[in-house]
């Protein structure tokens, strides 16, 4: 059965009549999470006044957020489309999720973060009875509700098991959870060990979850390292376990972040 939550690849309405430079500025800001006016002026060989006018147009359309001396990727806008993210490293993501098995247990209360990395998690969860899954990830909600016996809590309400109906609860209910395990992803991991995201709305949610979790597991494939994003969620120092297919030592300037971190490395053959 196909998921009803697959987002179509349609152009954003606000981009319809952008000129070539404005479209390229938008791509540059989204690629790095942020960009300075002076850097953009040098890149496109125009004045800073021209860049500011372009940023004003893009900001008014909600495509980015203007800041002092620069611009940031707009909150609530995905850096990559659903299809782009879903098709990236599909088999690696499946292997990373399989590597979570030793950390799960019957009856666990588990938070699952956003991102396509967790879209095959239901295959693992199905082997652990009595689990409660709490997540804002619609694909995880859909697959776990239909294909496992887990109780699935969507932020906003419960998804009726073996159905797609959300039973709405009153506000503030997510504060009541104490998670045994929090499974989170990242848009980028800097060389100093900072765990980064593009969307400040996602940052706020994840930070809140970290304070409510007994064990935090970061799942990140090799493509997440040495990338940039503007918002820091947490640091590897505050993560308990990282599951990856990368050699962390080659991506960190200071290996002390690995001292207390349990590292699970998935080999290319999935072992």
From TrEMBL:
This is HTH deoR-type domain-containing protein. The keyword Transcription applies. The lineage of its organism: Bacteria, Pseudomonadati, Pseudomonadota, Alphaproteobacteria, Hyphomicrobiales. Keywords: DNA-binding, Repressor, Transcription, Transcription regulation. The keyword Aminoacyl-tRNA synthetase does not apply. Residues 18-73 form the HTH deoR-type domain. It holds the Pfam family HTH_DeoR. GO terms for molecular function: DNA binding; DNA-binding transcription factor activity.
């Amino acid at each position: 059965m196909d998921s009803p939550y697959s987002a179509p690849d349609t152009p954003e309405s606000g981009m319809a009549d952008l000129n070539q430079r404005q479209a390229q500025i938008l791509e540059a800001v989204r690629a790095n999470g942020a960009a300075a006016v002076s850097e953009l002026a040098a890149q496109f060989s125009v004045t800073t006044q021209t860049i500011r006018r372009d940023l004003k147009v893009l900001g008014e359309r909600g495509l980015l957020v203007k800041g002092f001396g620069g611009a940031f990727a707009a909150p609530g806008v995905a850096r990559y489309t659903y299809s782009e993210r879903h098709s990236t490293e599909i088999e690696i993501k499946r292997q990373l999720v399989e590597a979570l098995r030793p950390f799960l247990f019957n009856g666990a209360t588990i938070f699952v973060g956003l991102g396509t990395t967790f879209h095959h998690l239901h295959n693992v969860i199905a082997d652990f009875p009595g689990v409660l899954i709490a997540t804002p990830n619609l694909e995880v909600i859909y697959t776990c509700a239909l294909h496992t016996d887990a109780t699935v809590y969507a932020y906003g309400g419960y998804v009726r098991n073996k159905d797609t109906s959300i039973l709405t609860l009153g506000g503030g209910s997510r504060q009541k959870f104490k998670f045994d395990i929090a499974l989170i992803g990242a848009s980028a991991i800097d060389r100093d060990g900072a765990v980064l995201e593009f969307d400040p709305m996602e940052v706020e949610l994840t930070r809140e979850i970290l304070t409510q979790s007994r064990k935090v597991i970061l799942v990140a494939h090799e493509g997440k390292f040495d990338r940039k994003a503007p918002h820091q969620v947490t640091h590897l120092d505050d993560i308990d376990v990282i599951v990856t297919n990368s050699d962390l030592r080659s991506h960190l300037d200071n290996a002390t972040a690995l001292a207390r971190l349990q590292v699970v490395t998935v080999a290319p053959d999935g072992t």
